[in-house]
């Protein structure tokens, strides 16, 4: 696909950009590797919005599928079945495949366009995108904690609403198609549900930066990564993390 060719080209350019790294080593010797890579990534693009969308999408896919894989492997290890919450139920490879196709459709056709629209909104509110060094870890931790509280409250009430009558029948029912959930089902949902509940995930950071004008994109990435871990673990079907 075109987008993956573009992403791969940019990744190669990032690691070939030795002169930019060398310049950072001279001008900003206190930056760590991630901060230098961050600066190099955005320096390799003429369009900051495209750079932001690409790195955000890559982050989401790597974290999401990276976290799902251990649970998928665990399903083939008999010793770990005792940790399954529904040990007498299992899903076929066909069911996994159908779920994967639906999730990929949501990622590319729903979430990716929304990700491309994130940059103009974030910068309008004053979010820092390319700035290095990153915020102090205490600032980052506090902001992520606030986002967890906001999202948890938002998710509780809107998830409850989605269990009401027609909302469940026409929207939320899809999310409960698998009687024995597994990691991939974390984002297996109707397009409207993807948008509604996704608003709680990204709404916290946008509301925060709109009020305080103090938020870095790396904080949003860390928050979303932790939230993905949380929801995948909750849908994994296991009583302990893998």
Automatic annotation (TrEMBL):
<keyword id="KW-1133">Transmembrane helix</keyword>
<feature type="domain" description="Fatty acid hydroxylase">
    <location>
        <begin position="145"/>
        <end position="237"/>
    </location>
</feature>
<dbReference type="GO" id="GO:0005506">
    <property type="term" value="F:iron ion binding"/>
</dbReference>
<protein>
    <submittedName>
        <fullName>20960_t:CDS:1</fullName>
    </submittedName>
</protein>
<keyword id="KW-0472">Membrane</keyword>
<dbReference type="GO" id="GO:0008610">
    <property type="term" value="P:lipid biosynthetic process"/>
</dbReference>
<dbReference type="GO" id="GO:0016020">
    <property type="term" value="C:membrane"/>
</dbReference>
<dbReference type="GO" id="GO:0016491">
    <property type="term" value="F:oxidoreductase activity"/>
</dbReference>
<dbReference type="Pfam" id="PF04116">
    <property type="entry name" value="FA_hydroxylase"/>
</dbReference>
<dbReference type="InterPro" id="IPR050307">
    <property type="entry name" value="Sterol_Desaturase_Related"/>
</dbReference>
<dbReference type="InterPro" id="IPR006694">
    <property type="entry name" value="Fatty_acid_hydroxylase"/>
</dbReference>
<keyword id="KW-0812">Transmembrane</keyword>
